[in-house]
């Protein structure tokens, strides 16, 4: 457990947490910036009011990051479905291609054994058509594989953004908790009854 002394709006607070000191200072700095910004924009506000408005702003940030995180999740699921469909199409094309290659070999073998010229010409035409179909199928398979590679790259980027959004949400949750602690302490300092009881 780390204990760090920080200043928020000129008042010292002791923060306790499992996180690194640098992180706790970062949280306190964020809250301090929010409070000071609100007080600068409205000098009539009390410190406790500024702390409440800061908490509202931080929760707003947290909700927006949460929404962004959920949006990333949905995109990730959609891309995963598309990728699986492409992979299924590629497997299907590979099977068809293998079948066509076997059929082509079979026709070529029959062609070698045939003595009828008209039959030979008919089979040659059939082979040409099959060859053309195979070329088209190969191009389609290559196109699917390229699209699948691009989807994997996009999927990787979205996973990175998703992880980043998750860390931001956790960060904002910590900031909110620290702001609430700050507000309780501020109220205690500003309430003479609480101070006299404490003595």
From TrEMBL:
Presence of the UniProt keyword Cell cycle in the record: yes
Places the protein is found: Cytoplasm
InterPro entries noted in UniProt: Bac_CellDiv_Activator, Cell_div_ZapA-like, Cell_div_ZapA-like_sf
Principal cellular location given in the protein's record: cytoplasm
GO term, biological process aspect, one: cell division
SUPFAM superfamilies: Cell division protein ZapA-like (SSF102829)
Residue ranges that the Swiss-Prot or TrEMBL entry lists as coiled coil: 69-168
UniProtKB keywords: Cell cycle, Cell division, Coiled coil, Cytoplasm, Septation
Alphabetized PANTHER family for the sequence: CELL DIVISION PROTEIN ZAPA
Subunit structure: Homodimer. Interacts with FtsZ.
Function: Activator of cell division through the inhibition of FtsZ GTPase activity, therefore promoting FtsZ assembly into bundles of protofilaments necessary for the formation of the division Z ring. It is recruited early at mid-cell but it is not essential for cell division.
Protein name as catalogued: Cell division protein ZapA
């Amino acid at each position: 457990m780390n204990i760090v002394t920080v200043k928020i709006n000129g008042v010292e607070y002791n923060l306790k947490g499992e996180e690194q000191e640098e992180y706790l200072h970062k949280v306190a700095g964020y809250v301090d910036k929010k409070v000071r910004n609100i007080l600068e924009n409205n000098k009539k506000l009390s410190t406790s009011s500024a702390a409440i408005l800061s908490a509202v702003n931080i929760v707003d940030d947290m909700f927006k990051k949460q929404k962004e995180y959920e949006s990333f999740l949905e995109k990730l699921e959609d891309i995963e479905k598309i990728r699986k469909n492409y992979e299924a199409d590629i497997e299907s094309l590979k099977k068809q291609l293998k079948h066509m290659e076997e059929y082509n070999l079979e026709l070529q073998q029959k062609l070698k054994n045939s003595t009828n010229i008209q039959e030979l010409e008919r089979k040659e035409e059939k082979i040409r058509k099959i060859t053309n179909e195979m070329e088209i199928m190969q191009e389609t398979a290559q196109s699917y594989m390229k699209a699948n590679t691009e989807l994997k790259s996009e999927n990787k980027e979205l996973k990175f953004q998703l992880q980043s959004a998750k860390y931001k949400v956790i960060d904002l949750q910590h900031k909110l908790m620290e702001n609430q602690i700050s507000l309780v302490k501020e109220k205690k300092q500003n309430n003479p009854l609480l101070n006299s009881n404490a003595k």
